[in-house]
């Protein structure tokens, strides 16, 4: 089996001087994190830098817990309507790191909008906790929670957005490509001009990428089957951000064309939770979309390209040859979920009285 890419890579080579550059932006964050569409590039960079700082202090300097315990005496509610390995482990360990108490509320513990309206649930739960990390179904559920909650909300996933995952992706990209740009001074110096090729479904992961990457100067080639287009509203938002940042967003149905000159190739599940009845049809519709060495050879990405996937992974989406290769940073990316969730919790939950 090919050697795995290391899950522990030194943070981008520029150290604390990079992290300090955007730190003041953390004080201007919106109360809630619904989508990175609501955040400025500087605020996104500040969260990535904060995550890198937490990772560096923990892994390189032995800081097992935050010395100031900013969540001491605070309870964070974890509302999970959908199961997750990385999100649950990352969130519970992050709260412990910050000195707080995690209260896990799974789909069998609480049913948002079923026996009690979502409005009533949000009002009641938020009156007893200091923050909510909610993994839900419909986008309307996360926006409804934010509307009626008296405590800050961080979106752990909904059908349109997944902000903490995309922050983890940005941290991973900064770590990998920062090592190749020793002259870089900022996060933007590292990521600006990189080419990301998305090959897969039109889902919440690519929507969130389009909410964040173009405004940070990252170019995107988005490849989905013709039956699964990116919504026009998402395309318009991405184009507006790309125009301001002088980046590019292009759309394809041919994966070979999409991966040409890519620095990063990304895919995700073709059958999300709740779409199981569509599996047979989707497997037909996504024929030719598996990321394989054959696709890479035909598409000719850039020399030092890497592969990313938010997990869990199914073999039809990417071959073992790619997934377990030196090109793959999927496990580094998975670990970085912890550090970016930790950064989000520290910024949004600890500053609240």
Automatic annotation (TrEMBL):
Naming one, the record's GO cellular component terms include: mitochondrion
Q: Which keywords has UniProt assigned to this entry?
A: Amino-acid biosynthesis, Arginine biosynthesis, Transferase
* Pathways per UniProt: Amino-acid biosynthesis; L-arginine biosynthesis; L-arginine from L-ornithine and carbamoyl phosphate: step 1/3
List its EC numbers.
Answer: 2.1.3.3
Aspartate/ornithine carbamoyltransferase Asp/Orn-binding domain: which residues? 193-346
State the Gene Ontology terms under molecular function: amino acid binding; ornithine carbamoyltransferase activity
Q: What domain of life does the UniProt record list for this protein's source?
A: Eukaryota
Q: Which PROSITE patterns match?
A: CARBAMOYLTRANSFERASE (PS00097)
Give all residue intervals belonging to the Aspartate/ornithine carbamoyltransferase carbamoyl-P binding domain.
31-175
State whether keyword Transferase applies: yes
Instruction: Quote the protein name from its UniProt record.
Output: ornithine carbamoyltransferase
Q: State the species of origin.
A: Linderina pennispora
